[in-house]
Design a protein that fits this description.
Blueprint: H1 4-12, H2 15-26, H3 32-52, H4 57-102, H5 107-117, H6 122-134, H7 139-149, H8 153-168, H9 172-221, H10 223-231, H11 233-257
Helix pairs in contact: 2-4, 3-4, 4-5, 4-9, 5-6, 6-7, 7-8, 8-9, 9-10, 9-11, 10-11
Length: 261
């Protein structure tokens, strides 16, 4: 951001640099200043509503913090979705680069062809790299920046292959063809793993929601019976223990079905 105030804030709070990178990686059309203003506004409005409803200071603070973090959480979700779309496009982009190299074009021209032919996000990401090269940045530095903007393991393979080829020589088109085929096989394996672990993920969601559903049903049947849980100190203790166990169980189920490929 060119705002002097934001520049001073980034100097005081290095964490803002990571948030600015998150905005860039998500592809959102919002500035760091806009995100901060939106987060502060959401937190302030939520705090005011809770205060008018007569909630205590702790709930007002927790509600404000949660509402203020919602824009960043949405950006994280957007970044994950954009990264998945990019990784799905990457094999086709590498094939296009390899064909261009076989036709005798230089690497910057091959990258420009990807920028022109591919849809967003791949086209947009490579277009910025081509623009940096045209403005005088060296190809290795531009590719390193590309890898930083789009934190994809598969893209990292491409960048490393190009950098090694520039140092040692070799048939880059053939290497990129092999990387493209490897990425396709990896995507197939990830899809298969997700399909096999779907039952475990659904079971984890059901088991996590079941206590809340049961509690709501019992409260609807007998309000006086369930209200003892938060009116009696022993009931509050039971709720706290159950909450901790529920979180631990959810994390354990998540670790069981989360398989990295």
């Amino acid at each position: 951001s060119n705002d002097p105030g934001i520049a001073r804030l980034k100097a005081l709070l290095p964490r803002l640099v990571a948030i600015e990178r998150l905005i860039e990686q998500s592809g959102a059309r919002v500035s760091l200043a806009g995100l901060l203003r939106g987060s502060l506004a959401a937190g302030a409005v939520t705090a005011l509503i809770l205060w008018l409803l007569g909630q205590g200071a702790v709930w007002v603070l927790l509600g404000a913090l949660f509402a203020g973090s919602v824009p960043s959480l949405l950006l994280i979700e957007r970044r994950v979705a954009r990264l998945r779309r990019f990784e799905a496009q990457l094999p086709e982009a590498l094939d296009l680069i390899a064909r261009s190299l076989r036709a005798g074009q230089a690497l910057p021209s091959a990258l420009q062809m990807v920028a022109d032919e591919m849809a967003e996000p791949a086209g947009q990401v490579f277009a910025r790299t081509c623009e940096e090269i045209r403005l005088g940045l060296s190809t290795p530095e531009a590719l390193n920046r590309l890898s930083a903007r789009m934190p994809s393991t598969d893209l990292g393979f491409f960048v490393i292959a190009v950098l090694i080829q520039r140092e040692t020589g070799g048939n880059l088109a053939q290497v990129l063809g092999g990387i493209s085929e490897l990425i396709r096989e990896r995507i197939k394996l990830i899809s298969k793993v997700r399909a096999l672990s779907a039952e475990g993920r659904i079971s984890g969601v059901v088991l996590s929601l079941l206590p809340f559903a049961t509690g709501c049903a019992l409260y609807a049947i007998d309000e006086e019976f369930m209200s003892a849980l938060w009116r009696d100190p022993r009931g509050l203790l039971m709720l706290k223990v159950a909450g901790v166990l529920l979180v631990m169980g959810g994390l354990w189920m998540r670790s069981l079905v989360r398989i990295r490929v």
